[in-house]
Write a structure and sequence with these properties.
This protein has no helices and 16 strands. By secondary structure, it is mainly beta. A hairpin with a 5-residue loop joins β9 (about 135-140) and β10. The strands form 3 sheets. Strands 3, 4, 8, 9, 10, 11, 14, 15 and 16 form a 9-stranded mixed β-sheet that branches. The chain has a 5-stranded antiparallel β-sheet with strand order 5-6-7-13-12, with no helix packed on it. The protein has strands at about 5-15, 15-25, 40, 45-50, 75, 85-90, 95-100, 120-130, 135-140, 145-150, 155, 165-170, 180-190, 200-210, 220-225, 230. The chain is globular, with a radius of gyration of 17 Å. The chain has one domain: Sandwich (Immunoglobulin-like). It starts with a strand and ends with a strand.
């Protein structure tokens, strides 16, 4: 895996999402070629996380047909430097997420499950299934370590277990500056672990990334859809 992304060329946008083509020496994630669907029937239309037509193998590789389908919800690059990208689909009761991070200096926090991954490179998916505002966080490091917990305001509760599966693919070597280029995390998150959705079939969604480079403190990148929520396809 050696992608060398050079630019993002936008072809169109829908409610803040971009459908585009990355111009690269070697393409990484073949782009969706049509705009995401929009859900009707509410005062503010929400973007739809579509249903994957084929099964997805959780191995950190983006070659599954589901990640190259025409109907695919994805973010624009939520930062030009370092480049970051996220893709979403649902199938068989799971939310599937593909996260990409350009990174010239890969570091993983030396912690075990549910440890503080945010002190080094990490990517996280933050879900809000109900109106009460409680967030369900699934966080992953380049080493494949997973932390999952809930939080309400500033209070974290690590007792929640998401039963998420994770696959990692690295281009480079951890903790060896100068040898790194990027990393991918692929996640399947069982929707049952979130409890009932309220409103039904909708979900608060945000993705974040922390990046540590050359010993500097971590910087935070964050993205969420317009209105902060998405509709899940049946």
């Amino acid at each position: 895996m050696r992608w060398g992304i050079l630019a993002l060329v936008g072809l169109g946008s829908v409610s803040g999402f971009v459908v585009g083509v990355k111009v690269a020496q070697k393409p990484v994630l073949p782009e969706a070629t049509s705009a995401p669907a929009i859900a009707a029937g509410s005062a503010r239309a929400m973007l739809v996380v579509p249903r994957a037509a084929t099964a997805i193998k959780i191995d950190g590789e983006p070659e599954d047909p589901a990640w190259t389908a025409k109907e695919l919800l994805r973010t624009p690059a939520f930062s030009e430097r370092p480049y970051s990208d996220a893709r979403f689909t649902v199938r068989d009761g799971n939310l599937y997420v593909l996260l990409y991070a350009a990174d010239e200096d890969l570091h993983a926090a030396p912690v075990s499950h549910d440890g503080p991954l945010w002190t080094a490179d990490a990517m996280r998916v933050i879900l809000t299934p109900r109106r009460d505002g409680r967030e369900y966080v699934v966080e992953v490091s380049p080493a494949g370590t997973l932390s999952d917990y809930t939080r309400m305001g500033a209070a974290n509760d690590a007792s929640w277990e998401s039963a998420a599966k994770v696959g990692i693919d690295l281009d480079g070597v951890l903790d060896q500056p100068g040898s790194d280029e990027e990393w991918v995390a692929e996640l399947s998150i069982p929707l049952d672990s979130l409890g009932p959705l309220d409103p039904p079939s909708t979900l608060g969604l945000r993705v974040e990334r922390t990046d540590v480079s050359n010993g500097a403190s971590s910087g935070l990148l964050s993205w969420s859809p317009p209105g902060g929520r998405v509709t899940l396809a049946p």
